[in-house]
Structures are given as structure tokens and as C-alpha cells.
Amino acid sequence: MDIMLFHSMYGLRPAVESAAERLREAGHRVWTPDLFEGRTADSVEEAMAITDGIGKDELLKRAVLAAAPHSERGLVYAGFSFGASVAQTLALGDEKARGLLLLHGTSDLAPNVSVDDLPVQLHVAEPDAFESDDWLSAWYLQMRKAGADVEIYRYPGAGHVYTDPELPDYDAEAAERTWAIVLAFLESL
Length: 189
What we know:
Layout: E1 2-6, H1 14-25, E2 29-31, H2 44-54, H3 56-67, E3 76-80, H4 82-93, E4 99-103, E5 119-126, H5 133-146, E6 149-156, H6 172-188
């Protein structure tokens, strides 16, 4: 499977490269574009300053340019938190998308989006300050209405970006459960 894996708003950190390597070891081809061009953050405030400084339109343009050379074969779009929202936007706009893997985040749906049984898997903390229960319920219904085949996995007690061992949110048990489910999902595509 060809996977385009987008980093969180913390930037292209070692955890993203480790995740990509885990996926490669399972036989997948993985690209990890650096939307921040080398910049990383150590706090939410720093991360927001970077994303706001670059701007959402420019970040989306960079993501599209990174994915375009590989999209002809059909990509699985994946991402962490902010990167999940980028992945969602690209997957829902790419008729050749093979799947969507969201780790720690979702995004608004554009009006009148339609996909043909796109396999979607979401992994999110429970509770998650950035992904409330009400939001997730509405998001799920919108994705189903758009035609996506959605699975949601919740991890009680985990922090927002619980798969990154360098962040305070890290939860080793939840992270390992997530990767086992993710690998099975990718194998099924």
C-alpha cells in the first residue's frame, strides 16, 4: 500500500518517522512530507504559531504538491492530529484514494462531498479536548452521509497525541493497540 503520512502541528518529529518505519516494515511504501520545511515545535503554543505563520491555504498547497506525484496509483492518506485534517481533506478530494487513516484528529467536511465506500479509520483519545463527543458524533454522521465506511476507535485515559513518546500525552498501551489495529486495517485494503 502507498501511504502519504502527514505530521501533526508539532512538525516532522521522530515519532512520525518511527511510525513511517513501522509501516514500511509491514511492507508499505510511505512518504512523510515536511509541511513546515524543517521547523518543529515543543509546545502547542509554538505549534500554533508555526501553522498560523505559514497559513492553512499554504499548508494545504504544500500537502497537495507532496501527494500529487504519488496519487495516480491510489494513496492511503494518513495523518496525526493537524495532519489528520490535511489527510482527510486530500482523501475526500481524491477519487483514487484507497483509504483514510486518522490518528488523533478530524476536520470539517466540505459541502456536498461524496466518496464511494472510502474506508476510514479514526483513532482518538477519550475524552479529547480537540475532538469532543458531540463533534465526533456529527463528524461520523457527515462522513457516513458522504459515503465513507467509517470505524472509530476510542482510547480512554489517553492524551490527545498519545502515540508520540516524546510528548506528555504519550500512552504506550494505547499506542500499541492503535498500531495493531492500523496494520490490520491497511492489510485489509
